[in-house]
Structures are given as structure tokens and as C-alpha cells.
Amino acid sequence: MAEVTPDLRNEFIACIPSMRAFASSLTGAGDRADDLVQEALMKAWANLHSFTAGTNMRAWLFTILRNTFYSNCRKLKREVQDTDGTYAANLAEHPQQHGHLDFADFRIALDKLPHDQREALILIGASGFSYEEASEICGCAIGTVKSRVNRARAKLAEMLSVSSADDFGPDGSAQAVLSVTSVPTAKSRAMG
């Protein structure tokens, strides 16, 4: 462990010009190189207790600088340049709480169905059995299973106040928010 002495501090400071030159060769831009050197120096200073006195300070600092550069490169690979906001606008998604509440309502309504209808609906709709397989499981005719599934679907639609497929998904206000295709800029707000 290194104790912060004036000699250690001077050695630390003396490495800065060569670190900046190395950072410039890595980044290719002076301002990015300065940021990289600053970040590396901050990490080094915060972890100075892990530096072993008598070892090569310059090599230790350059290792931190190099590792910081490669860590930043990995982060940048995951970032997306989105100056006009089009990428962010496409990331909108429906609010999750409505789906959770709708599913809770569905479970309550499903529990209110007669046992034979609920069983047929779950076998066909949720478990993926064919009507033939469901009729064997239930021990009844295929037509009976089809009838039970049809009555179960109609009863669920009635209990949940569903009249068409458009009743599923986001409500009108969520649709309006999600259909916005551009983010207004200061200029467009001033003009509008």
C-alpha cells in the first residue's frame, strides 16, 4: 500500500503529459483524450491505496488509462446516436399496469365460468390441445367440446365487456401517446 507522499504525488503528476499523449493516440481527439486522462487519474487517485510503493507508477497509470479506454469502448458499442429523437420515439411501449389489471379481471371471470366450460377452454386455448385430444381428455364428443369452448368464450367476452379484438391492448390515451412520431424541438414549439 502506498502512502501519499510529496514524492508519490510528484511522480503521479509527472506522468500526466505522457498519459495525455497515449490517450490522444487511443482516441484520436484532444478533448476525448483529456476526458480519458481525467477519468483514469480519478480512478487511480481513488485507488492509490492499491498501488505498491516502489513499483512502476507510470506502468500502473497507463494500465488504468488503457483499461478505462477499453471499458468506454464497450459502453459506446451499446449506445445509439439519436440526435433527432427518432430511435427514442420507437422505443415507446404500452404501460404494463393495464395488462396486469386486465389479466386479474380475466382470472376472476375465468373462475366464474362453469367447470366444464373452463376445463374445455383451458385445454384448447391455454394448453394447446386439439379438439380431438380435449374430447378424449374430457370423455365427451368433439362437438360437445367445441360447444363448451364457444359458450366459455362468449361468456368471458360478456363478463369482460369485450365486443371486438380492438378492445384488447392500450386504451385511447395510451394509443395517442404511442402514435407520436416525432419529438417536438424548441424551434418547432416556437413556430407552432
TrEMBL record:
This protein's record includes keyword Thylakoid: no
InterPro entries from the UniProt entry: RNA_pol_sigma-70-like, RNA_pol_sigma-70_dom, RNA_pol_sigma70_ECF_CS, RNA_pol_sigma70_r2, RNA_pol_sigma70_r4_t2, RNA_pol_sigma_r2, RNA_pol_sigma_r3/r4-like, WH-like_DNA-bd_sf
GO terms (BP aspect): DNA-templated transcription initiation
Domain RNA polymerase sigma-70 region per the UniProt entry, residue ranges: 17-78
SUPFAM superfamilies: Sigma2 domain of RNA polymerase sigma factors (SSF88946), Sigma3 and sigma4 domains of RNA polymerase sigma factors (SSF88659)
UniProt keyword Transcription, yes or no: yes
Protein name: RNA polymerase sigma factor
Organism: Breoghania corrubedonensis
